[in-house]
Amino acid sequence: MSESAATLSAMLRSRNVELPRYGWRTHGPGFVAIAVLIGLFFLGVPVLGISFERFIPGLWRLGDIVMLMMPPSPETWSRFFIYLEALGQTLAIAFLGTMTAAVFAIPLGFLAARNIVANRIVHFFARRLLDTVRSVDTLIWALIWINVVGLGPFAGALAIASADICALAKLMSEAIETADRRPVEGVTASGGSRAAAVRFGIVPQVLPVFASQVLYYIESNTRSATIIGIVGAGGIGVHLSEMIRVLEWQQVSFLILMVLVTVAIIDQISRVLRKTIAGRG
Amino acid sequence: MTHSIHTVAVLPAAQLAPLANAYGAAVAAKRRQMVLGIAVTLFALALAALGAEVEPQKFWAKLGNFTDYFARLAHLDSGAYVWTDPVEWFWGLRKWLRLIGETMLIAYIGTFSGALVAFCACFMCSANLTRSPVLRATVRRLLEFCRTVPDLVFALIFVVAFGLGPLPGVMALAIHTAGALGKLFAEVVDNIDLKPVEGIAASGGSWFAQVRFGVVPQVLANFTSYALLRFEINVRGASVIGFVGAGGIGEDLLVSIRRFYYADVSAILLVIIACVMLIDVGTEFLRHRLVRMEGAR
Question: In degrees rounded to 5, what are phi and psi of residue B78?
Answer without folding.
Answer: -75, -10
